[in-house]
Amino acid sequence: MAHKKIAVIVAGSWGTALSRVLADNGHYVKLWTRNAAQADQINSERRNEKFLPGAILPEGITATTDIAEAVTDAEAVLFVAPSSAMREVARQAANFLHKEALVVHATKGFESDTLKRMTTVLAEELGRPEQYIVVLSGPSHAEEVVNRLPTTIVVASKDIACAETAQDLFMNEAYFRVYTNPDYIGVETAGAIKNIIALGAGLSDGLGFGDNAKAALITRGLAEIARLGAAMGANPLTFAGLAGVGDLIVTCTSQHSRNWRAGSMLAQGLPLAEVLERMGMVVEGVRTTKAAHALAVQHGVEMPITDQLYSVLFEGLSPENAVGALMGRVRTHEIEEIASASRNKWLKG
């Protein structure tokens, strides 16, 4: 495959790690950041110490604070902005984006005020149908990817040509394997909601509840993801794949996960504002909990774990009482509960 000019927006941990993958594959990467000191460090020292301490970046990555320089003539643009900033940076990039450029995003969250998925936000700001935008997701810690540890992800688009172009850009035989999936709604929804369950897993571990409790949380969390995803138009089979159960496992069981760490700190009694200040980076699960809580009401979907985490984060409920509320729920049938949303979706056509 010919080497391409690719813009990556922005230079956080995941954007930087994916820039390494692209540079390792021989592409020319322009990595955009608002922070001039960060850009200087990347260009002069080949490091991004705030987000990926200790990692040395290849020469194929050039950082810039000029979004026009990054996007103009780029054959592909990868958006990795936080969900809260996606609309703003997309609006800035739109003025310089070539109409034939491939658009990919790797952000896991919803827009807080509109509850829209990131593909919808990008489609609105870039003026192109969302089914031609590619979603990159799956079980992938930036700290491992930047160190070239074996990783497998999925790229999703309704347009198979777009998905396969993205697959070719990112896939290599050394450490980064990429699958395609047409269900971009399911991939996107799973990537967002799993951050909520990871908050709960960190909270459970912080309370010392053990592996039994965490296994149950992950499993029941997957049921919540599937119910909401099906209601939003996703294929339920997507949630059994890399973007669903794969990403859920890695995010709920690793201390690399910001959401897990935030949940663990909440279990220690720290207020949310202090947790976020200590993290120093975006914790998407916090915003996503608020959005998913509203989406569950909007779609009439039962999401008890999300409901209890919403109460812990925003209504002052203690973590211990949240667990008690979950354990004391009315008894139900596991398979019937998991299957109901997907069955109803497909019966409706």
UniProtKB/TrEMBL annotation:
Pfam family, one: NAD_Gly3P_dh_C
SUPFAM superfamilies reported in the protein's UniProt record: 6-phosphogluconate dehydrogenase C-terminal domain-like, NAD(P)-binding Rossmann-fold domains
Annotated Gene3D superfamilies: N-(1-d-carboxylethyl)-l-norvaline Dehydrogenase, domain 2, NAD(P)-binding Rossmann-like Domain
Location of this chain's protein in the cell: Cytoplasm
Residue span, Glycerol-3-phosphate dehydrogenase NAD-dependent C-terminal domain: 183-323
Any GO CC annotation of this UniProt entry: cytosol
Binding site for NAD(+): A142, R258
EC number(s) given by UniProt: 1.1.1.94
Residue numbers binding substrate: K108, R258, N259
Keyword Transcription regulation: no
Domain Glycerol-3-phosphate dehydrogenase NAD-dependent N-terminal: 5-162
Catalytic activity entry: sn-glycerol 3-phosphate + NAD(+) = dihydroxyacetone phosphate + NADH + H(+); sn-glycerol 3-phosphate + NADP(+) = dihydroxyacetone phosphate + NADPH + H(+)
Family: Belongs to the NAD-dependent glycerol-3-phosphate dehydrogenase family.
UniProt function note: Catalyzes the reduction of the glycolytic intermediate dihydroxyacetone phosphate (DHAP) to sn-glycerol 3-phosphate (G3P), the key precursor for phospholipid synthesis.
Name used for this protein in its record: Glycerol-3-phosphate dehydrogenase [NAD(P)+]
Organism: Cohnella luojiensis
